[in-house]
Amino acid sequence: MSCANLRGLNLEYAHFEHANLQKADLSYTDMWCAALHSADLTGTDLSGAKLHEAVFYNANLSRANLSGAHLLDTHFDYANLTEANFRHSPNLRRKRKTS
How far apart are CA 62 and CA 33, in angstroms? Predict the structure, then answer.
């Protein structure tokens, strides 16, 4: 699905584990609770997407555009976020270390 145009679609609960979504247009999609474990999203446009509770465990989001994406309780554990753009993304918080 590399370079796919999925702009604005409702993809709630979608399963994209290990998917190749390089340079895909996922802008303004609703991906609430989507599973993207180990997916390759290099250079993907996720701007304005609703990513509440989505799981990007071990995903490659290098150079992905997440500007304006809604990231409430979104999981990026072990994800590659090199050069990812998170500008103007509401709900983006860093986890605090607990002693």
Answer: 21
The closest of 85, 91, 87 to 73, measured between CA atoms, is 91
Q: Given this model, what pLDDT does residue 95 score? A: 53
Number of C-alpha atoms within 13 angstroms, CB side, residue 94? 3
Of 9, 69, 80, the C-alpha closest to 43 is: 80
> Using one digit for the tens of pLDDT, what is the confidence trace for 35-93?
999 999 999 999 999 999 999 999 999 999 999 999 999 999 999 999 999 998 877 66
Structure tokens at 21: 């979504």
Question: How far is C-alpha 88 from the geometric centre of its chain's CA atoms?
Answer: 15
Find out whether 42 and 64 touch, Cβ atoms under 8 Å. Answer: yes
